[in-house]
C-alpha cells in the first residue's frame, strides 16, 4: 500500500535556483531487531486487557524519492525523531545543502545507507532499535536545479506493508494485496519502487476510467464531481479486502470463501466511521449501486457472505438496548443486519446491532432479494443467481410469517423494525410494504429464469395480491401514506415511500405502482419534503406532514438522509422527473461540498440547521443509483421482466 506525492517547483525568478524537499516518517517506540532488506520493520502488538502482548504481526514502512537526471536523492535511514539534537542536525544539513548525510545518526548496516543512492530512487531502510521512550524515523531528500522560468517535479513515496488484518478477538486475515507481494511483512520497499515506477500509469488509468463521466456534456459539473468523489468511502470506510485466513483456522464451507471464477476474496466496509459494523445490509441496499457498477466481483462476494450468514443460527441471547428484553443474536433464515464488527470476529459473529430485535426487521429480507436480482441483471451471472435462489426462498418464507392479517403485505409491529430505527410503523407501511411487493416481483422473475414455473406463479400471485393491498390501504390520492397505524404520523409524506418501486425499476421490472401514481407521489415528495424544508435546497427531509410542517415524531423523521435523498433522486430520474431529481440531489451536493463543509466525510444525516449525525457514512454512495438510473438501459446484461 502506498501514498505517492509529486510536488512541482516553479522558478519565476531571473536566475537558476536549487530547490530541495524532504520527507520523513516516524516509526514506533521500539523496532524489532531484524535484517530487513526493504523498509523498517516493527511488530504490530495486539494486547490483552491486562496489557500482555497476545499477537505480534509484522509491519514494514518505507519512504522514498524518485531520482531523475536532474535530481539528487539522499537519505538518513535511521534517526531519533524525539531527539532535539538529531532533529536540529538533520535540519541544518538540509537547510545548508539540500541534502542528508546519515553519518552521526543511528547506526545502520544497510547497504543502501549511502547518501547518493543508485539511479531510480531510494527506499529508506535500515537496522536500528530505538531506545526506551524514544522514537526513530527515516528521512529522504530530493534536490533539483530549476532553471529560470522553468518547472521541475519531485516525486516522493510513503509505503507500508501490513499483511495481516487482525481483529480484537484474534481472528486474522491476509490482506488482498499479499497475493501479489507476499505475506512476510517486508515488502514496503517493493511497494515503494512500484509506486515510483508506475504512478503516472496509475494516474492515467484513473483518468481514463473517469473520462466518460467527467467529459459528458449532458451532466452538470456539480453532479460529476460528487459522483466521483463519493467513491472515497469504498476505500476510506474502514474497508477490509482479504485473501484467506492468517490465523491457522480453515476457511470453512462458506460459499463466499470458495475460490471460483472471478473470486476476489472477502470485502467489508463499515456502516460509518462512528457506526462500527461491517456491511450493514439495510444501508448497503442503497450504497451497493457503487460496488456493483464499479467492482462487481466484490459485490457478488459480499452477497455470498450475506447469504451464508442468513443460514446461520446463533443461539445465544443478548439484551436489547431499546427495551431491556432478551432476544437471539441471529435466527436462521433471518437476513443479517451486519457482518460483525472489528471488536469481535467479522463474518463469523454476525449482527453487532442490538438496539432492536433485528430478526424481526421487515426490510432486510426484501432488500436481499432485490439486491440479488439487481446484481444478476447487471452482471448476467447465472451461477450467482442459482446459488442465491435457495436463500431467497428461505428469506421470503420467513418474511411472509409477518403478514399477520393475510392481506398479502408484511405488517410492521409498532416498533422501529426497519432501517429507520427510531421511527416506528404499524401494519401495512409504504416503506416495508413496498419493498416486500417488489421482492415478490423479483422472486417471480428469478423463478422464471431458473425454469421453476410453479414457484414463479406462486410469487406472481403473491405480488399481485400485495400490490392491490398496498394501493388500497395507503394511496391518498396524491401519495402513499406512511402506515396504517392510528398514530399522528399515519398521514405523513415519507421521502422514501417508493423505495420498492425505485428498486423494481432499477431491476428492469417496471415498478410496482402505476406510473401516474408514482409521478404524483414523487412530485408530492419534491413539493413538500424538498421545497418546503429549510431553504428548499437541502435535500429531502424524511418526513413531512400534509400541512407543510416537518414530521417531528422522532429524530429520524425530521432529518435529511443524504443517501436516501440520492435514492429519491434516482427514483425521480427513472420516472422522467429530471428537473426534480437533479434539484433534490443538488441540495445534498451543495450541503456536503459547499454549505456545511462535509466533503470526504459525507454524513448519514443533517437537520434543518445543517448539524450532522454520523459523519463519513456508507449510504451516500447511493448517488451511483442516479448513474444507474440514467445508464441501465445501455449497460445491463439482461432485460428484466415486467408484470
Structure description:
By secondary structure, this protein is α+β, with helices and mostly antiparallel strands. Helices cover 36% and strands 18% of the residues. The strands form seven sheets. Strands 1, 3, 4, 6 and 8 form a five-stranded antiparallel β-sheet that branches. Strands 9-10-11-12 form a four-stranded antiparallel β-sheet. It is globular, with a radius of gyration of 28 Å. The two termini are 49 Å apart.
Low-confidence stretches: 28-42, 108-126, 638-643
Structural class: alpha+beta
> Major sheet, described briefly?
5 strands, antiparallel
- How widely separated are the two ends? 49 Å
How many DSSP E strands?
A: 21
Q: Report the average pLDDT across residues.
A: 87
What is the gyration radius calculated from CA atoms? 28 Å
Name the overall outline: globular
Share of helix, binned: 25-40%
Keywords:
alpha+beta; 643 residues; five-stranded antiparallel beta sheet; four-stranded antiparallel beta sheet; disordered C terminus; 16 helices
Please give the structural blueprint.
Elements: E1 2-10, E2 17-26, E3 40-47, E4 53-65, E5 71-80, H1 84-97, E6 122-123, E7 136-146, E8 151-161, E9 164-166, E10 172-175, H2 178-181, H3 188-214, H4 221-229, H5 232-236, E11 240-245, E12 267-268, H6 281-294, H7 296-310, E13 314-319, E14 326-330, H8 364-379, H9 382-400, E15 412-413, E16 426-427, H10 430-449, H11 453-474, E17 493-494, H12 499-506, H13 515-530, E18 543-544, E19 560-561, H14 562-574, H15 578-595, E20 605-606, E21 612-613, H16 623-635
Antiparallel strand pairs: 1-8, 2-7, 3-4, 4-6, 4-8, 5-7, 9-10, 10-11, 11-12, 13-14, 15-16, 17-18, 19-20, 20-21
Helix pairs in contact: 6-7, 6-8, 6-16, 7-8, 7-9, 8-9, 8-10, 9-10, 10-11, 10-12, 12-14, 14-15, 14-16
Amino acid at each position: 500500500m502506498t501514498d505517492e506525492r509529486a510536488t512541482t517547483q516553479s522558478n519565476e525568478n531571473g536566475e537558476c535556483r536549487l530547490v530541495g524537499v524532504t520527507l520523513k516518517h516516524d516509526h514506533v517506540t521500539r523496532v524489532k531487531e531484524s535484517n530487513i532488506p526493504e523498509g523498517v520493520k516493527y511488530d504490530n502488538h495486539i494486547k490483552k486487557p491486562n496489557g500482555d502482548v497476545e499477537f505480534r504481526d509484522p509491519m514494514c514502512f518505507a519512504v522514498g524519492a524518485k531520482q531523475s537526471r536532474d535530481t539528487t536523492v539522499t537519505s538518513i535511514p535511521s534517526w531519533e525523531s524525539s531527539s532535539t539534537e538529531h532533529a536540529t542536525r538533520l535540519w541544518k544539513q538540509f537547510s545548508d545543502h539540500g541534502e542528508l548525510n546519515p553519518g552521526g545518526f543511528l547506526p545502520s548496516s544497510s547497504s543502501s545507507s549511502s547518501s547518493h543512492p543508485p539511479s531510480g530512487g531510494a527506499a529508506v531502510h535500515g537496522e536500528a532499535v530505538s531506545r526506551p521512550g524514544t522514537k526513530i524515523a527515516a528521512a529522504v531528500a530530493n534536490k533539483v536545479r530549476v532553471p529560470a522560468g522553468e518547472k521541475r517535479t519531485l516525486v516522493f513515496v510513503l509505503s507500508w506493508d501490513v499483511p495481516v488484518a487482525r481483529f480484537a478477538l484474534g481472528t486474522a486475515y491476509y490482506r488482498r494485496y499479499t497475493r501479489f507481494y507476499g505475506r512476510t511483512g517486508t515488502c514496503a520497499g517493493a511497494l515503494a519502487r512500484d509506486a515510483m515506477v508506475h504512478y503516472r500509469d496509475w494516474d492515467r488509468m484513473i483518468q481514463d476510467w473517469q473520462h466518460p463521466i467527467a467529459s459528458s456534456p449532458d451532466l452538470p459539473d456539480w453532479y460529476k464531481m460528487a459522483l466521483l468523489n463519493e467513491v472515497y468511502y469504498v476505500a476510506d470506510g474502514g474497508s477490509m479486502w482479504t485473501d484467506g485466513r492468517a490465523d491457522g483456522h480453515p476457511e470453512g464451507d462458506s460459499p463466499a470463501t470458495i475460490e471460483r471464477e472471478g473470486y476476489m476474496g472477502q470485502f467489508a466496509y463499515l456502516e460509518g466511521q462512528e457506526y462500527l459494523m461491517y456491511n450493514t445490509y439495510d444501508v448497503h441496499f442503497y450504497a451497493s449501486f457503487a460496488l456493483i457498477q464499479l467492482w462487481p466481483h466484490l459485490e457478488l462476494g459480499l452477497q455470498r457472505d450475506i447469504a451464508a450468514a442468513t443460514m446461520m443460527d446463533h443461539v445465544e441471547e443478548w439484551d436489547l438496548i431499546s427495551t431491556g428484553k432478551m432476544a437471539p443474536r441471529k435466527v436462521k433464515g433471518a437476513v443479517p443486519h451486519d457482518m460483525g464488527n472489528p471488536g469481535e470476529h467479522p463474518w463469523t459473529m454476525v449482527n453487532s446491532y442490538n438496539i432492536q430485535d433485528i430478526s424481526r426487521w421487515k426490510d432486510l429480507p426484501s432488500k436481499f432479494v432485490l439486491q440479488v436480482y439487481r446484481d444478476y441483471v447487471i452482471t448476467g451471472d447465472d451461477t450467482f443467481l442459482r446459488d442465491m435462489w435457495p436463500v431467497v426462498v428461505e428469506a421470503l418464507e420467513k418474511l411472509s410469517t409477518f403478514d399477520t392479517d393475510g392481506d398479502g403485505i408484511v405488517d410492521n409491529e409498532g416498533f422501529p423494525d426497519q432501517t429507520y430505527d427510531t421511527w416506528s410503523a404499524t401494519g401495512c407501511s409504504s416503506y416495508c410494504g413496498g419493498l416486500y411487493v417488489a421482492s415478490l416481483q423479483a422472486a417471480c422473475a428469478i423463478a422464471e429464469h431458473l425454469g421453476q414455473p410453479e414457484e414463479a406463479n406462486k410469487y406472481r400471485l403473491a405480488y399481485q395480491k400485495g400490490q392491490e393491498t398496498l394501493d388500497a390501504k395507503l394511496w391518498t390520492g396524491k401519495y402513499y401514506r406512511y402506515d396504517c397505524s392510528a398514530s399522528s404520523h399515519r398521514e405523513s409524506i415519507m421521502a422514501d415511500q417508493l423505495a420498492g418501486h425505485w428498486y423494481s425499476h432499477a431491476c428492469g421490472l417496471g415498478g410496482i405502482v402505476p406510473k401516474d401514481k408514482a409521478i404524483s407521489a414523487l412530485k408530492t415528495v419534491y413539493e413538500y419534503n424538498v421545497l418546503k424544508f429549510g431553504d428548499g435546497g437541502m435535500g429531502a427531509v424524511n418526513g413531512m406532514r400534509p400541512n407543510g410542517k416537518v414530521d417531528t415524531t422522532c429524530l429520524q423523521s425530521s432529518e435529511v438522509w443524504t443517501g436516501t435523498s440520492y435514492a429519491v433522486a434516482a427514483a425521480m430520474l427513472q420516472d422522467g422527473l429530471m428537473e426534480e431529481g437533479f434539484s433534490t440531489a443538488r441540495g445534498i451536493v451543495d450541503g456536503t461540498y459547499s454549505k456545511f463543509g462535509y466533503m470526504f466525510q459525507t454524513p448519514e444525516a443533517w437537520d434543518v440547521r445543517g448539524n450532522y449525525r454520523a459523519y463519513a457514512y456508507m449510504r451516500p454512495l447511493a448517488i451511483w443509483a442516479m448513474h444507474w438510473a440514467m445508464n441501465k438501459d445501455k449497460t445491463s446484461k439482461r432485460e428484466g421482466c415486467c408484470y
